[in-house]
């Protein structure tokens, strides 16, 4: 088995406010291989989004302290300077936020926002070429009428389209790892299914790895290869999807699965 | 887009028309006529004066004349300074006021941008607190007080800058600072609050996740959205500058239009008051209109669905 | 696992500094005290002239000094506080009654009526406020009543807009739907549900319109259109004190300081309130 793409070891996150000092992530360790989709599940407040943001060190340094080790493509991320981190963000590791409406700047066209990411990786590219590549990416994301969408503003588009555009924006620089934070929560069922299919396609074709953060076990079952279960900042269980769904070891995982089964039972 | 523009223009014209009519009505509501106070006039001279100024016609006729004169751009004749039309006065004095106003505007915008940026980037630091104190003072201390304080220290005590009048560039410094104080405080507060809000927004986080340099994020994403409220404040800002100019020109003895306005009020020169009021209103309303359009251009959301906040 | 850390000195300072409302309210209380109690603790009357004691500097006899007619400035400042307070009350009344009434009307009525009313308000609003105030003062003469009218004739429109905006926002919310489905009529919903939820923006707007009105009065007095002698308002006192600045600075200093203090207190209270209600309102004041 080759070296993992991302290897996190004893990662801890501390929050410091005026009166309190709290530990939000408790020494979690996991790894992500190349061309793999890893699901990170847990309920709200368990620290899922924070994990992703800690990997890219997006949290304000004044209040948040990170300890541990994050190894990515033979670089130790926690020792990098801000300038070096900027080389990683967007280019090698991309983050896709939860709410696409908030993640897109309302006063800039889609085109501007897509080009922004592209022109960083490839500074010699001409504008015409950049627009062509961006439009291609939108088409790859199955966004209908791609060239029209390029010139539009975020508020003119539907949630599903915005999510796809956010995905295109994240992938346009062809990163090796995508941190997808609840990519399907704000969408309806059919759109959800399409986005998940897209993920699987991209992992196959583009040598991409995905850390899929979600609280929906259905999404996990559909899409992921391995699962990490997070509860209150602790990593309580890891394993392949089959392992977790058939033989959950930790009480928490069991209760998560049980509640899902109960829902399905009522439906039937 | 064009229907939006068209509606706004109609609006502008309607407002102006209403104001003009309002001023006319107000003037006609004063008991007696402007010359009845002068005892030295005999009846014939009185009648002749009334006829000369067209005041012996029926109200409706006077109104029609008034409106048609306005259309031609004539704002009236002064009652006190005979044969001196409002237009002449404006031509002579407005450039000075305009220069002062523009200089104050530029100063205010530049300073508030710098201060607002400093605050947003270092929230809750000492510089932030200091600037906030400055803001509170700028908003609370009325301009005539600030003017006198500045005069007292910089002119009388330390002899650094000239006290009054309008001759060299250094004469313009104290009036500009006085005039710009309130707008700067307001805009700094606006910029600071907006920037702080925007820097919390998701799309800024996304931009950071994309690995953009903080300056790029600021320039492309944050500033545009943060400046929008400042732009919409620019309308009332001109109002502030204009009103402020009355006081400043008075205290610093600057030969601008504001001084004439104050004099006309003191002299009860109604026709001059009216003419100048209309002129000022016209400028303010037009500027507000331009600012509205500019806002629409900058924020695409407004263009498509003009919304009242 | 929680580890509590004691606050450092600078942190504690920052915590208290931000109780802006506290300072604002303190200043306001002090001013109200001066206004109500002041004239009683002084032995002089506001129009009492002491011709032998003209332009005296502050002393034990005359706490804030005297003006050029020998009148005690302390008492006149207290009376000036009363006038500003009157203006504040008038602003509150006019803003609340007219502003809320028209705002609610526009917010609740059907879209066409709303559109009409708003267009009308927009036209009125675009007419420069202070210029209107000047016009009205010139034509109706000076005196407290006309000043009050002039100063407030347009300012209620800001309140109306804020109220309308808030009502439009709240109208769509689910709890209003719930009340309506229980059979409530519009006025009930307005009084019991919509307006109580609008108090936040209303109060913040008041902290902006009141100082604006007080400033307008000072400004009008400064132009010579204000309260007539021998009544004392801070604006007229500043107007009278200005020419004598070089020789008798206290004549300008005290009214000026009090005007600034009043504006400052409202500003602080407003900032504090904004933090509490946590929203941003339109910043157009003048």
Which residue ranges of chain B are poorly predicted, with pLDDT under 50 across at least 5 consecutive positions? 303-309
Q: What is the N-to-C succession of helices and strands of chain A?
A: EEEHEEHEHHHHHEHEHEEHH
N-to-C series of helices and strands of chain B: HHHHHHHHHHHH
- CA-based gyration radius of chain B: 24 Å
The biggest beta sheet of chain B is recorded as: none
Cα end-to-end separation of chain B: 20 Å
Number of strand segments of chain A = 10
CATH class of chain B: Mainly Alpha
Overall description:
- The complex is a heterotrimer of chains A (268), B (309) and C (286).
- Chain A is an alpha/beta fold.
- Chain A has helices spanning 48-55, 82-88, 100-103, 110-121, 127-140, 146-150, 159-171, 189-206, 217-223, 241-246, 251-267, and strands at 6-16, 20-32, 37-41, 64-72, 75-76, 93-96, 177-181, 209-214, 226-231, 234-240.
- In chain A, β1 (6-16) and β2 form a beta hairpin.
- In chain A, α4 (110-121) packs parallel to α7 (159-171) and α5 crosses α7 (159-171).
- The radius of gyration of chain A is 19 Å and the shape is globular.
- Chain B is mainly alpha-helical and 309 residues long.
- Chain B contains twelve helices and no strands.
- Chain C is mainly alpha-helical and 286 residues long.
- In chain C, α3 (73-108) packs antiparallel against α4, α3 runs parallel beside α6 (144-152) and α5 (129-140) runs antiparallel to α6 (144-152).
- Classes of the chains: A alpha/beta (268), B mainly alpha (309), C mainly alpha (286).
- Chains B and C meet through α1, α5, α6, α7 and α9 of B and α4, α5, α7, α10 and α12 of C.
- β2 (20-32) of chain A pairs antiparallel with β1 of chain C, so a sheet runs across the interface.
């Amino acid at each position: 088995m080759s070296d993992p793409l991302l290897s996190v070891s004893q990662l801890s996150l501390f929050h410091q406010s005026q009166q309190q000092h709290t530990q939000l992530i408790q020494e979690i360790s996991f790894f992500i291989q190349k061309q793999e989709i890893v699901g990170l599940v847990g309920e709200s407040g368990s620290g899922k989004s924070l994990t992703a943001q800690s990997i890219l060190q997006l949290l304000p340094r004044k209040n948040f302290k990170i300890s541990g080790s994050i190894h990515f493509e033979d670089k130790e991320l926690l020792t990098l300077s801000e300038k070096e981190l900027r080389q990683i963000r967007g280019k090698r590791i991309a983050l896709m936020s939860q709410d696409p409406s908030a993640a897109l700047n309302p006063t800039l066209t889609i085109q501007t926002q897509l080009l922004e990411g592209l022109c960083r990786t490839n500074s010699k590219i001409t504008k015409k070429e950049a627009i062509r590549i961006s439009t291609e990416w939108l088409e790859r994301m199955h966004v209908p009428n791609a060239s029209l969408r390029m010139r539009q503003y975020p508020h003119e588009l539907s949630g599903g389209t915005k999510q796809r555009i956010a995905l295109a924006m994240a992938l346009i620089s062809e990163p090796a790892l995508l941190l997808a934070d609840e990519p399907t929560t704000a969408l309806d069922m059919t759109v959800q299914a399409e986005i998940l299919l897209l993920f699987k396609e991209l992992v196959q074709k583009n040598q991409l790895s995905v850390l899929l953060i979600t609280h929906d076990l259905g999404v996990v079952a559909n899409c992921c290869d391995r699962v990490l279960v997070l509860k209150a900042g602790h990593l309580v269980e890891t394993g392949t999807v089959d392992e977790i769904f058939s033989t959950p070891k930790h009480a928490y995982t069991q209760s998560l699965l049980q509640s899902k089964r109960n829902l399905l039972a009522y439906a039937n | 887009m064009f229907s939006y523009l068209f509606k706004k223009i109609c609006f502008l014209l309607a407002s102006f028309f209403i104001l003009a009519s309002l001023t006319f009505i107000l003037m006609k509501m004063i008991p007696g006529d402007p010359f009845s106070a002068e005892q030295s006039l005999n009846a014939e001279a009185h009648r002749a004066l009334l006829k000369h100024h067209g005041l012996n016609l029926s109200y409706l006729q006077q109104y029609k004349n008034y409106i048609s004169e306005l259309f031609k751009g004539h704002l009236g004749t002064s009652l006190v300074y005979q044969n001196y039309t409002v237009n002449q006065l404006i031509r002579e004095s407005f450039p000075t006021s305009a220069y002062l106003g523009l200089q104050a505007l530029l100063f205010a915008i530049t300073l508030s941008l710098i201060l607002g940026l400093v605050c947003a980037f270092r929230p809750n630091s000492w510089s932030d607190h200091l600037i906030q104190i400055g803001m509170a003072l700028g908003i609370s201390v009325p301009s005539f007080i600030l003017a006198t304080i500045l005069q007292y220290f910089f002119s009388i005590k330390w002899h650094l800058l000239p006290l009054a009048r309008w001759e060299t560039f250094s004469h313009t410094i104290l009036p500009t600072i006085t005039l710009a104080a309130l707008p700067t405080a307001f805009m700094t507060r606006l910029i600071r609050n907006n920037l702080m809000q925007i820097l919390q927004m998701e799309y800024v986080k996304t931009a950071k996740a994309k690995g953009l340099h903080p300056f790029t994020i600021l320039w492309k994403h944050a500033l545009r959205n943060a400046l929008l409220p400042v732009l919409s404040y620019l309308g009332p800002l001109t109002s502030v500058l204009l009103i402020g100019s009355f006081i400043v020109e008075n205290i610093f003895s600057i030969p601008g239009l504001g001084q004439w306005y104050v004099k006309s009020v003191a002299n009860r020169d109604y026709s001059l008051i009216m003419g100048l009021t209309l002129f000022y209103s016209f400028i303010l309303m037009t500027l507000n209109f331009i600012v509205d359009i500019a806002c629409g251009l900058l924020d695409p959301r407004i263009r498509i669905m003009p919304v009242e906040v | 696992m929680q580890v509590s850390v004691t606050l450092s000195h600078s942190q504690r300072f920052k915590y208290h500094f931000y109780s802006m409302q506290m300072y604002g309210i303190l200043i306001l209380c002090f001013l109200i005290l001066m206004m109500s109690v002041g004239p009683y603790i002084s032995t002089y009357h506001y129009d009492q002239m002491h011709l032998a004691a003209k332009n005296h500097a502050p002393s034990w006899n005359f706490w804030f000094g005297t003006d050029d007619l020998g009148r005690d400035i302390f008492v006149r400042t207290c009376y000036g506080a009363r006038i500003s307070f009157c203006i504040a009350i008038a602003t509150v009344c006019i803003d609340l009654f007219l502003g809320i009434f028209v705002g609610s009307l526009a917010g609740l009525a059907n879209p066409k009526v709303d559109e009409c009313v708003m267009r009308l308000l927009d036209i009125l609003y675009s007419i420069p406020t202070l210029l209107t105030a000047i016009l009205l003062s010139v034509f109706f003469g000076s005196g407290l009543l006309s000043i009050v009218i002039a100063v407030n004739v347009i300012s209620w429109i800001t309140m109306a807009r804020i109220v309308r905006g808030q009502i439009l926002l709240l109208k769509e919310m689910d709890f209003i739907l719930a009340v309506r489905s229980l059979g409530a009529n519009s006025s009930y919903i307005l009084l019991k549900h919509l307006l109580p939820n609008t108090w936040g923006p209303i109060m913040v707007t008041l902290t902006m319109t009141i100082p604006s009105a007080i400033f307008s009065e000072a400004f009008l007095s400064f132009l010579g259109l204000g309260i007539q002698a021998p009544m004392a308002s801070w604006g007229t006192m500043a107007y009278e004190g200005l020419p004598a600045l070089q020789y008798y600075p206290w004549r300008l200093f005290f009214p000026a300081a009090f005007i600034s203090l009043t504006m400052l207190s409202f500003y602080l209270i407003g900032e504090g309130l904004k933090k509490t209600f946590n929203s941003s309102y339109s910043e157009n004041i003048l």
